[in-house]
């Protein structure tokens, strides 16, 4: 077995967390995986994993070796595909993280056609609304909505998501329909808590060139976008949400847009990835496809 193959096995063991899971992913005997790790440790003269009867985790040396090994494997894969124009030849694993609603509504439904073009790609897909540390989590790229704090990452701004205010018909029947910003003081909102912004930050509007911040009462706070929209549908308050995400609900009458003359400040939609000199072809191909897809589906929904 060549050294690159050994490195790929080592990387998979780190990602999987134990020999058994890694062996299943690699379709190799567990004994082979265990032997490869032992051989690497003997060659390097250090332990790569902390081992107990129930779990294993990388040592400090193991983590350092993991970063180097991953970089070497990525460069090796890039060299193999450098002169290949056939998209079928692009292969390997991609780790991505995308906000849950964009993942469920936009990206996952489009993945089958993408994988028909690139059947040898393996995508590890995180669909959450939580902050992801690309470097420590070994993620190739993420989509982020809102303000950014990762100064060491490469950021590609895709555009701005237009927002709208909406509520359920039942909520408006019981509480009335707000017309002016001052009316919001009498209403309840569904608070959205994220890893980037606190729920108490308030809503911001641009009025005559000035930013107006409105803080309202609430009976509920949620931690993901699915629950946020579900709470509005249940009549628990007004929400402020990317327009693309509720166009169908507004068209069906399940939600009603309010205060359309007062548009909230838009949210930036960005693609982030680690600052690496050699971006592998598979990651570049996926990023280009993802950017085009979300730009078409998410950024062109100002009109119902």
Automatic annotation (TrEMBL):
Q: Which GO terms describe its molecular function?
A: DNA-binding transcription factor activity; sequence-specific DNA binding
- Known InterPro entries for this protein? LysR-type_TF_proteobact-type (IPR058163), LysR_HTH_N (IPR000847), LysR_subst-bd (IPR005119), WH-like_DNA-bd_sf (IPR036388), WH_DNA-bd_sf (IPR036390)
List keywords of the entry alphabetically.
Answer: DNA-binding, Transcription, Transcription regulation
Domain HTH lysR-type positions = 1-59
Q: GO:BP terms for this protein?
A: DNA-templated transcription
Q: Name one Pfam family in it.
A: LysR_substrate
Belongs to which family?
A: Belongs to the LysR transcriptional regulatory family.
Put simply, this protein is called Transcriptional regulator
């Amino acid at each position: 077995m060549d050294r690159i193959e050994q490195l790929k096995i080592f990387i998979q063991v780190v990602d999987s967390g134990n020999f058994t899971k890694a062996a299943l992913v690699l379709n190799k005997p567990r004994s082979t995986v265990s032997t490869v790790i032992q051989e690497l440790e003997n060659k390097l003269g250090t332990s790569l994993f902390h081992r107990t009867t129930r779990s294993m985790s990388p040592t400090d040396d193991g983590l350092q070796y993991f970063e180097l090994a991953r970089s070497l494997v990525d460069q090796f894969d890039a060299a193999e595909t450098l002169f290949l124009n056939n998209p079928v030849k692009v292969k390997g694993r991609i780790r991505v993280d995308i906000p849950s609603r964009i993942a469920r509504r936009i990206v996952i439904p489009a993945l089958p056609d993408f994988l028909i073009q690139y059947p040898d790609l393996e995508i590890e897909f995180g669909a959450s609304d939580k902050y992801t540390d690309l470097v420590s989590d070994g993620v190739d790229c993420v989509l982020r909505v809102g303000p950014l704090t990762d100064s060491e990452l490469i950021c590609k701004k895709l555009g701005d998501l237009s927002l709208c205010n909406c509520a359920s018909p039942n909520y408006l029947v019981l509480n009335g329909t707000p017309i002016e910003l001052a009316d919001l003081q009498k209403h309840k909102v569904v608070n959205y808590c994220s890893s980037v912004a606190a729920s108490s930050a308030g809503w911001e509007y641009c009025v005559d060139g000035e930013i107006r911040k409105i803080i309202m009462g609430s009976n509920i706070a949620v931690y993901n976008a699915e629950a946020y929209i579900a709470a509005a549908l249940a009549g628990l308050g007004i929400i402020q949400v990317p327009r693309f995400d509720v166009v169908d609900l507004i068209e069906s009458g399940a939600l009603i847009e309010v205060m359309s003359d007062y548009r909230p400040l838009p949210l930036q939609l960005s693609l982030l990835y680690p600052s690496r000199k050699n971006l592998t072809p598979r990651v570049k191909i996926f990023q280009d496809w993802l950017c085009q897809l979300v730009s078409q589906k998410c950024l062109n929904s100002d009109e119902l």
